[in-house]
Every structure is written in structure tokens, then in C-alpha cells.
Amino acid sequence: MTVARSVLLFVLAAVAEIGGAWLVWQGVREHRGVAFVAAGIVALGAYGFVATLQPDAEFGRILAAYGGIFVAGSLLWGMAVDGFRPDRYDVWGAGLCLLGVAVIMYAPRPGVLEG
């Protein structure tokens, strides 16, 4: 259950961070206005809080692993929202990043995320 909770928190963090960055981008680069920028800032702030809910207590480990989630999530966001079509190198790169997440976060360590 701890691993499932951790994965869910990573997904929520990715939606908050990537969504927040996208909203700021839309507000500034696409001239959608201050409401988009403000919503983006709120979402980015929420990302910071979601990361603190991870069951592992090591900040460096959480943020390093989250980097892989961010890479894969950004490609998925681009596909879903902006019509981006990744090539095979994008897919391979994201897969390698997610493999890194699995090793960093879920490799057996005494007393850390067992289960």
C-alpha cells in the first residue's frame, strides 16, 4: 500500500507542477491573461506541498525520483493537451527515467518503503 500511495502522490505532484507550468505558459506566451498565470502559481505551490506527503523522508531521494516522473509526465501532458507526438527517442528516454524512478524509490532498503 505504501508504494501505491507514493505513486499516486507522484502523479498528483506531476499534474500540479506540469499543469501549473502550462497555465503560466498559456498566460504569458499565449497571452491568455493574468488569471491563467495566477492559477498556475497556485498549482505550482500545491506541487510543493504534495511532495512533502511522500512516505519516504529523504528530500533528495524524493526530488531525484520525481525528476523522472516529471519527464514522462511532461511528454504525456504535451500529447493530451497540445497535440505533441513523441518520437521513439522521447519514449525510450521517458522509459529510462521511469526505470530510474523505480530503482531510486522502490529498491529494497531496510526500513524504507518496504511493501
Please explain how this structure is put together:
The chain has about 120 residues and is mostly helical. It has four helices and no strands. Helix 1 (about 1-30) runs antiparallel to helix 2 and helix 1 packs across helix 3 (about 60-80). It is flat.
Please describe the structure with a list of short key phrases separated by commas or semicolons.
flat; 4 helices; mainly alpha; 115 residues
Task: Quickly describe the structure.
With 115 residues, this protein is an all-alpha fold. The chain has helices spanning 2-29, 34-51, 59-82, 88-106. It is flat, with a radius of gyration of 15 Å.
Give the secondary structure arrangement, pairings included:
Layout: H1 2-29, H2 34-51, H3 59-82, H4 88-106
Helix pairs in contact: 1-2, 1-3, 3-4
